[in-house]
Specification:
- Residues 1-18 form the signal peptide.
- Pfam families: Acetyltransf_1.
- Belongs to the acetyltransferase family.
- One of its GO terms (molecular function) is N-acetyltransferase activity.
- By secondary structure, the protein is α+β, with helices and mostly antiparallel strands.
- Helices cover 22% and strands 26% of the residues.
- The protein is built from 6 helices and 8 strands.
- It has helices at residues 46-51, 66-73, 105-114, 122-130, 185-199, 214-218, and strands at 27-31, 79-86, 92-99, 134-143, 152-163, 168-176, 204-209, 222-224.
- The protein has an 8-stranded mixed sheet.
Length: 238
């Protein structure tokens, strides 16, 4: 099973930012469910499971109404304290995990700047977040002694997933503030997304990773080029 308590996690590789790349060649990584996760259905091969949504004999299939499906598919947001520590000066810092909450795009842009990602239009960032199936965030909240109600809160991590709400999902924009890397926070973000997707019976989970973070994702159960599948890209020629 996946471990979600960062304090109890063993030492792992530092999380690096899987930033958007201008290179033509990236790894296509797919989580095929081979880790010991609680999945009730048997594992199909990658392409067969993708094709499973199509009827081979063109027969009629009765499905529930869209309104009913929408109610069942909505992920339930959650929020909890992931880590809490007290500094020598008495300042208490909590790292809060949250899913489904709003993300301030200016805070996100600041975080992207810290990890060295190229800037993207704020309007497109807002649209990407709005259209994501799930958005997970990490916030640091610092409380000084005697300053109740005057907390300092900042965004220190984020990961999001897009999905067709049925078969496939892709994880994007996994990033952690460099001053908080190496603590297992990136690992927790990805694991939480995987678990939530599997609970929704979405079994084909992919992501794109730069070469320097491939090993990090392999340690989380992802495979590069499963069954010989290669990622292919189309870029505008202008």
């Amino acid at each position: 099973m996946l471990t979600l308590n960062v304090v109890a996690l063993p030492s792992i590789l530092p999380i690096f930012s899987a930033q958007p790349s201008n290179h033509q060649f990236n790894y296509l990584l797919a989580n095929t469910g081979r880790r010991k996760l609680k999945v009730t259905r048997p594992r199909a091969n990658f392409w067969d499971s993708i094709r499973s949504g199509f009827l081979k004999d063109n027969s009629t299939q009765v499905v529930e109404s869209p309104s009913t499906l929408q109610e069942e598919e909505e992920p339930q947001p959650e929020e909890f304290v992931l880590v809490e520590k007290t500094e020598e000066d008495g300042v208490v810092e909590q790292i809060i995990f949250s899913s489904g909450g709003d993300v301030d795009i200016y805070d996100l842009q600041t975080l992207c700047d810290k990890v060295g990602w190229p800037r993207r239009p704020l309007s497109k960032l807002a649209t990407a977040l709005k259209n994501s199936y799930m958005v997970a965030t990490l916030h640091s909240i610092q409380k000084s002694p005697g300053s109740e109600g005057n907390e300092q809160k900042k965004l220190i991590g984020m990961a999001r997933a897009t999905s067709d709400h049925a078969f496939n999902a892709t994880i994007w924009d996994v990033l952690v503030d460099p001053s908080y890397q190496g603590q297992g926070l990136g690992k927790t973000l990805v694991e939480k997304l995987i678990r939530a997707l599997l609970q929704r019976d979405i079994g084909n989970i992919t992501l794109f990773a730069d070469s320097q973070v491939v090993e990090f994702y392999q340690n989380l159960g992802f495979e590069p080029d499963p069954e010989g599948i290669k990622g292919m890209f189309w870029y505008p020629k202008y």
